[in-house]
Amino acid sequence: MRLLLGVLLTIATTAAYERNTQKKTLGTLYRWKQIDFKYPTEQERLAAIANGLFNQTNVIPLGIERWKGRIFVSTPKWKRGVPATLSALPIAAVEESPPLEPYPNWLWHNAGNCTGLTSVFRMSVDHCGVMWVLDSGQVEAFETPRQLCPPSLFAIDLETDTVLARYPIPDEFVLQNSLITNIVVDSRDARCRDLHVYIADAWRFGLIVFRQSDAMFWRFSHYTFYPEPLLSNYTLHGLNYQWSDGLFGMSLGKFHLGERPLYYHAMSSSLEFVVNTSVIRDPTRVNDAVAEFKLLGESRGPNGQVSAAAVDRNGVMFYNLISYDSIGCWNTCTDYKNKNRDIVAQNTRTLVFPNDLRIDHEVPQFVWIISNRLPMYQFNLIDPNEYNYRVLYLDPVKAVENTVCQYIC
Predict the structure, then answer these.
(1) Which of 49, 221, 371, 391 is deepest in the core (most CB within 10 A)?
(2) Is a pLDDT exceeding 80 seen at residue 368?
(3) How far apart are CA 56 and CA 348, in angstroms?
């Protein structure tokens, strides 16, 4: 608690502390016009730029996680010139636009033969302090895609900064043109001995499950993983584009009476669905579970596309409304209806395309968000004179005050 208070006081004294103009709940920890990296020497940085190994224009932050005094940010290698794909920054911000420090170290970003990190999308930290890292293995996806390595899970001990294991996803579960995009970790055991990882395939509409105890993978397919055609057309700040992304956002509900729900949705959709995790944790149900994946409730509307979502300890789901520059909330003990959903943050400057969203394991908890103007990046419309990328945070308890999400079950 003392650390967090110090962080807030530090941020408040810098230009990086941007307040949400609507509900005064959203804070900015870091912001960048362009991303830089912390090289061992300035000479090495300049050499990387000269050799085309580092091009600031092509670096975009995508995934966010937090463990104790650090946050972790992914920078996928979607375009040439991204020298590192996973970095760490301190929670105690001392400058608003710091260079990213490659994590665990530079060697893991220069390793050959697929032994190191290739192109990380997102991460999920379990309550035992292990960060599960989803590496797509593909580079230059927005140029000429090259699959250098199989998509893999890395397990990294955040107390020792040691890579514990790498688990390549078997070829049989990675289809042609698969886009392995998101990850959530599920463990109920105090020592994480029952750990499972759920992985979304947005382009081939699948849910891949990993069981740590025997390093086994399996894959579910279901029609609820598909996008809605009319929700595949987007307009964001005057930019019209089309994405047909399927299964993307996943969040775990509260554990109750031996069961825990997984809420999920396609990116290009206005609908939320749910399945009990006892179903997807059972590989024998792969071909015998069609009726277990269920529509949760009412549509979010014609521009109700959501990227990431997460549920806090009080059972409140927070989710990124990417077409509204907003973060929404829903109390999971109520019906999934319009009357039970609300907006906790909205800002047309700082929340342009809120992409990733995670809730940490701290007491009290905080919600962490990356906003990154992804469509503008994809179409080379990023203005280097503006602040384009932000690490944002909010207090989930204060955020839902005086909203319908404050309802106590």
Answers:
(1) 371
(2) yes
(3) 24
